[in-house]
Amino acid sequence: MRLRLDLGYDGTDFHGWAAQPGLRTVQGEVETALAVLLRTPEEQDPPRLTVGGRTDAGVHARGQVAHLDVPEALADRITACRLDGLLRRTAPDIVIAAVRPAPPAFDARFGAVSRRYEYRLRSADAPRDPLTARFTADVPRSLDFDAMRQASAELLGLQDFTTFCKARAGATAVRTLLRFDWREVEGGAYAATIEADAFCHSMVRALVGAVVAVGGGRIDRPQLIELRDRRERTSRFAVMPAHGLSLEEIAYPPDDELASRAERTRARRSPLD
């Protein structure tokens, strides 16, 4: 039986999602707890999770999704209440929101139609807040909020985002950026909402870094457009720190479209002219 897990975590003390020998990771903690519930013998590998958004070290999540396959006879051992209760003792910085059966065609990674992130930052003009410091990046200069909003709009749509990420071997950086907007939040901080059909590695933090460079006067909007269209990595802006980023939501199509969506996602995207 395939099960879908909805979970969130404070990523501060994790070396990212993916399991790594000798390091504390979200995947490692959840899989260890699953092995306890399933009474998996020590000599066997724990059950393996497939994740919707593989977050880096320090990145947080409210809307992470994963799936795993278990024998049907054992599936009732894994409930949100039991798994969350176990993790409260072993990894209290992880919260299991739901565990439920999923269609066989459900794939947490390849079945997604979009992913939505939030990035929070404070400019030099905003007072520092120790209670939000783990989730908000500090920018040591004043920022032009309107200029940041205008710059974000220049990055929307179908683009080759090579300037902002490093594509995997044999893949392209062609993505559709569906949303990139800003709002003011408590304490004078700024929050960006970034949504796309998919993201490359560090793409969200690089996009925010480019817009912050415009807001801080390091580059202007025409220069941003030029860098975007050049499609090569640059040192004109910095990739923002991980701790300001949170995965907020992963969206999936109706059940009858899951298989076709996964097939399209696995296909290589055509380069743009």
Automatic annotation (TrEMBL):
Known EC number: 5.4.99.12
Pseudouridine synthase I TruA alpha/beta domain: residues covered: 151-253
Protein name per Swiss-Prot or TrEMBL: tRNA pseudouridine synthase A
BP GO annotations: tRNA pseudouridine synthesis
The family this protein is said to belong to: Belongs to the tRNA pseudouridine synthase TruA family.
Active-site residues, Swiss-Prot/TrEMBL: 56 (nucleophile)
Entry keyword Isomerase: yes
Molecular function per GO: RNA binding; tRNA pseudouridine(38-40) synthase activity
Function: Formation of pseudouridine at positions 38, 39 and 40 in the anticodon stem and loop of transfer RNAs.
Lineage: Bacteria, Bacillati, Actinomycetota, Actinomycetes, Micrococcales
CDD domains: PseudoU_synth_EcTruA
Top-rank EC class of the record's enzyme: isomerase
Subunit structure: Homodimer.
Keywords: Isomerase, tRNA processing
Binding site for substrate: 117
Catalytic activity: uridine(38/39/40) in tRNA = pseudouridine(38/39/40) in tRNA
